[in-house]
């Protein structure tokens, strides 16, 4: 769920996934042994850039939710504090 840092020169068999944080790699090797042809990739910092975009999207979503909550609160306060017209009973004599 949070950030992952893979130290220098590590070989990972599988994936390194972080849902809400950065994945930081420094000259590491990541392999997928489930494929017929084994692939290895050396990556430096590429996942961190993707994580930054994800962080910006999450911040934008959070700001929109905060703005919506503020508007809802303002509408509720306006409704509660709205001056109601006075009701007068007028009697007719006759």
How is this fold's topology laid out?
Elements: E1 4-5, E2 11-13, E3 23-24, E4 28-32, E5 39-43, H1 46-81
Parallel strand pairs: 1-3, 2-4
Antiparallel strand pairs: 4-5
Key features of this structure:
single chain, 94 residues, alpha/beta, 3-stranded mixed β-sheet, two-stranded parallel sheet
Tell me about this structure.
By secondary structure, this protein is of the alpha/beta class. It is built from 1 helix and 5 strands; from the N terminus they run βββββα. It has one domain (4-78). A 3-stranded mixed β-sheet has the order 2-4-5, with no helix packed on it. A hairpin with a 6-residue loop joins strand 4 (28-32) and strand 5 (39-43). The radius of gyration is 29 Å and the shape is rod-shaped.
Low-confidence stretches: none
What is the molecular shape?
Answer: rod-shaped
**Into which percent range does the helicity of residues fall?**
25-40%
Total number of distinct structural domains = 1
List the secondary-structure elements in sequence, H or E.
Answer: EEEEEH
The biggest beta sheet reads: 3 strands, mixed
Amino-to-carboxy terminus distance: 80 Å
Judged by helices, strands and strand pairing, the structural class is alpha/beta
Strand order of the largest sheet: 2-4-5
């Amino acid at each position: 769920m949070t950030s992952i840092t893979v130290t220098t020169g590590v070989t990972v068999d599988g994936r390194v996934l972080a849902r809400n944080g950065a994945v930081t790699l420094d000259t590491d090797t990541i392999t997928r042994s489930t494929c017929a042809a084994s692939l290895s990739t050396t990556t430096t910092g590429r996942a961190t850039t993707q994580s930054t975009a994800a962080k910006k999207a999450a911040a934008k979503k959070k700001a929109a939710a905060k703005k919506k909550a503020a508007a809802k609160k303002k509408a509720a306060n306006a409704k509660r504090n709205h001056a109601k017209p006075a009701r007068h009973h007028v009697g007719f004599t006759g």
